[in-house]
Every structure is written in C-alpha cells, then in structure tokens.
Amino acid sequence: MKLFNLLFAAILSTAMVACDAQKTTEADNDDQITVEDFKRERDELKANIKSELEKIDAKIDRFTAKKKEQADELSDDAEKQYDELIANLKDKRKELNEELEEVENTSEENWENTKADIQKGFNEAKAGVEKAAQDVEDFFEGDNDNV
C-alpha cells in the first residue's frame, strides 16, 4: 500500500509539473502574440500617418503652385492671409509628424497605455489639417475679398 501511495504521489507530481510547464508555454505564446499585435498595430498607425503626411505635402505643393498662378491678382493683404493659412497648414503637418515620432518611439511595454492617446492625437491633428486645407481651398474659391 505504501508503494502504491508513493507511486501515486510521483505520478501526481509529474502531472502537476507538466501542467505548469504547459501553462508557462501558453503564457509565452500569449506574450508572443502581444508582441506581434504591437508590431502590427504600430506599423498600421505609422503607415496611416505617413500617408496623411504625403497628402498634406501634395496639398501644400498644389496650394503653392496655385498662389504662383494667381500672384498678379492677389493684393498684399490677400497674399499675407494666404501665407498665414499655409503656415497654419504646415504647423498642423508638424503636429502630425510629431505623432509619427511618438509612434516610432513607443515601446511595446508602453503601447497599450499610449495607443489611445496617440490615436486621439493623430485624429485631432488630421482634423486640424483638413480644416486648414479647407481654409486654403475657401480662400481660392473666392471666399476672400482681397483677390
């Protein structure tokens, strides 16, 4: 009977150790998925921000060309107003670029804590860019009296 109890205890101990090893492996796999998710989410957000930056650059180029086309028609006040609008657009672009830098510098450990803040900052900067770009569009569509 003692031999049976001893054998049973040995089998039970082996089973418990094996279970614990399996839990550790599962936990490691969960961490690995988290790392993969972090990289995927960060890369997606970086790509979105870079895409927006490219769009802004194209708008700035287009607006600058449009200003050159209409240079003879713009009054000094209109030109100054336009330059302020473009400066505002460039400031918003800078804010968006700062969001990109924050994404690039965020570590896996901080990702969950900062992801929402970064996404919020990205959305706010993007909205600011869209407003600034619309202001420039409105300027050229005749909403300004100084042309």
From TrEMBL:
<keyword id="KW-0732">Signal</keyword>
<protein>
    <recommendedName>
        <fullName>YtxH domain-containing protein</fullName>
    </recommendedName>
</protein>
<keyword id="KW-0175">Coiled coil</keyword>
<feature type="coiled-coil region">
    <location>
        <begin position="35"/>
        <end position="109"/>
    </location>
</feature>
<feature type="signal peptide">
    <location>
        <begin position="1"/>
        <end position="18"/>
    </location>
</feature>
